[in-house]
Amino acid sequence: MAYELYYWDGLQGRGEFVRLALEEAGAPYVDVARGEKEDGQGIGALMAGLESDEPYPPYAPPFLRDGDLIVPHVANILFYLGPKLKLAPRDEGLRIIANGLQLTIADLVTEVHDTHHPIASGLYYEDQQDAAKARSKDFIQHRMPKFMRYFERVLVHNPDGPQHMVGTALSYVDLSMFQIVEGLRYAFPKATKHLAGHYPNVIALHDAVAARPAIVAYLQSERRLAFNETGIFRHYPELDRATH
Amino acid sequence: MAYELYYWDGLQGRGEFVRLALEEAGAPYVDVARGEKEDGQGIGALMAGLESDEPYPPYAPPFLRDGDLIVPHVANILFYLGPKLKLAPRDEGLRIIANGLQLTIADLVTEVHDTHHPIASGLYYEDQQDAAKARSKDFIQHRMPKFMRYFERVLVHNPDGPQHMVGTALSYVDLSMFQIVEGLRYAFPKATKHLAGHYPNVIALHDAVAARPAIVAYLQSERRLAFNETGIFRHYPELDRATH
After folding, report:
1. Chain B contacts of A180, Cβ < 8 Å?
2. Quick check: B243 pLDDT over 60?
3. ipTM of the complex in this document
4. Contact yes or no for A157 and B53 at CB 8 A
5. Distance (Å, rounded) from C-alpha A213 to C-alpha A199?
6. Does B107 lie in the same domain as B48?
7. For residue range B90-103, what is the model confidence (pLDDT) as tens digits?
8. Does A129 touch chain B (CB under 8 A)?
9. Per the count of CB atoms within 10 A, which of A74, A93, B105, B116 is most buried?
């Protein structure tokens, strides 16, 4: 049976980290909110999932339904799917390592979101623009380099080589790193101009993922939405580095 | 062998969610940064752990060392420890549910942190106080109620009864919920004054955890640090609800 992914339509957002894993694995899945109402899908099905009286409701999208089990949170979904999609290490300890790395990626994603919404998710960007400029400046100067240095260091110290974030083979963590680089480059083209020079292994990993046949096919398909200003990674030129 | 918990000394912070699980289980552990330099502990040992050239370094505290394995991130540590401490459901699906709930708690913790540091972790509170007031107002009006309503709903819909967040027995998620209520009451005494009326099952769970012998003993011990204004939950009266 196909996995059911529940996430907002119209943006890549946090759902994209799950889509990349499903696409790489060629796993059957339904992107529920993007489906048709006649098929029991669409935004109404997403809202029904959020407001359901079933046990253990999810707090927010994305969540994944696999039969009776509803799995919320990107890192949790990927931890659950990883072994089934053959995108997780076989070793139990390395699976815990992978989960830790994915949670650091999740923290970075939250910080990226807060560059344009530092005061309130419920307010428009335009109503918190001054705070957004201050937070983005700090993000570009301090936070992004700290995360990127860390990811580079993880690759350099991987005992199985710098081709992968964890272990000897492609994992969902590698796929998420691809999305991080794509997203940061979209949101902050000036601030990310020299990523390849500073973090060569991170960019090599990004490029290797981008060249995988299933990922190439996905990125060219209609299933891949374009980045836009309703997602996590938003390009507001006034938040990018002024000079470089 | 004792578990080694690595977290900053002087504050409860994110480390406290791990401490509560270790304490409830009576598990042997060393709170490394609070130990003595002569014993290879203290803040130097924490910094060495962060800057180590070992494979898979942690990005930030807290992290747990269990033999050769270094486990970072609160939710990941608790997912790893849960079964060993008998503080996780036996059912694999419910363990995934527990992890999802813990990640929602982690998101709330991050939002609480950002009430006093909405612009930059590296800046003083006093240098971002206006933004902190705006974010705290939104947190108290919208975010805290949304999270608390959700947790109440999880308890009400637990098919095994509203005594626990997941399954039939105490889990690390319940212990974390205790800490959430404690922390919110410390940080926002006015805004949380009516929690018991609005979220009776959440408060009943808090009270049940607070009455457990191992938790009572821990809270009275020197191992439990007091809340203070270097932690996640900080009491700045100007950020609390003005009227209620």
Report:
1. none
2. no
3. 0.97
4. yes
5. 24
6. no
7. 999 999 999 999 99
8. no
9. A74
What does the pLDDT look like over B117-132, one tens digit per residue? 999 999 999 999 999 9
CATH of the domain at A76: 3.40.30.10
Is the Cβ pair A100, B76 closer than 8 Å? yes
| Residue A234 to residue B35: CA distance in whole angstroms | 45
Q: Does B75 touch chain A (CB under 8 A)?
A: yes
For B183, other C-beta atoms within 10 Å of its C-beta total 22
Of A55, A128, A154, the CB nearest to B159: A55
Same domain, A220 and A99: yes
**Single residue among A84, A112, A144 that ends a domain in this structure:** A84
Q: Let me know whether B180 and B135 are in one domain.
A: yes
Structure tokens at B219: 């809270």
What is the tally of structural domains in chain A? Answer: 2
For residue B77, is it within any domain? Answer: yes
Between the CA of residue B174 and those of A57, A152, B59, B181, B204, what are the distances in Å? Answer: 17, 37, 26, 11, 11
Considering only the beta carbons, identify the residue of A68, A71, A121 that sits closest to B100.
Answer: A71
**CATH code of the domain covering residue A159:** 1.20.1050.10
Distance from CA of A220 to the nearest CA of B (A): 32
Task: Tell me the average pLDDT of chain A.
Answer: 97
Whether B93 has its CB under 8 Å from any CB of chain A: the answer is yes
Residue A96 is nearest to which of B60, B80, B96, comparing CB atoms?
Answer: B80
Measure B217 CA to nearest chain A CA, in Å: 31
B38 and B69 fall within a common domain? yes
Q: Does B120 touch chain A (CB under 8 A)?
A: yes
CA distance A77 to A89: 15
Asked whether residue A24 falls in the same domain as residue A55, the answer is yes
Q: Cβ contact (<8 Å) for B123 and A138? A: yes
The verdict on a CB contact (< 8 Å) between B99 and A79 is: yes
Interface touch B138/A122, C-beta < 8 Å? yes
A27 and A100 both lie in a single domain: no
Cα B51 from Cα A93, distance rounded (Å): 21
Half-sphere exposure of A116 (CA within 13 A, CB side): 21
For residues B193 and B124, membership in a common domain is answered with: yes
- Establish how many alpha carbons lie within 13 A of residue B30's alpha carbon, considering only the half-sphere containing its beta carbon: 18
pLDDT in tens, A2-20: 999 999 999 999 999 999 9
Task: Find, among B233, B163, B166, the residue nearest to B201 by Cα.
Answer: B163
Query: Where among B29, B60, B84 does a domain terminate?
Result: B84
The domain of B26 spans: 3-84
Contact call for A71 and B147, based on CB within 8 A: no
B-chain CB neighbours of A79 within 8 Å are 96, 99
| A244 within domain boundaries | no
The contacts of residue A178 (CB under 8 Å, 6+ apart) are A20, A205, A206, A209, A210, A215
Q: Are residues B162 and B205 in the same domain?
A: yes
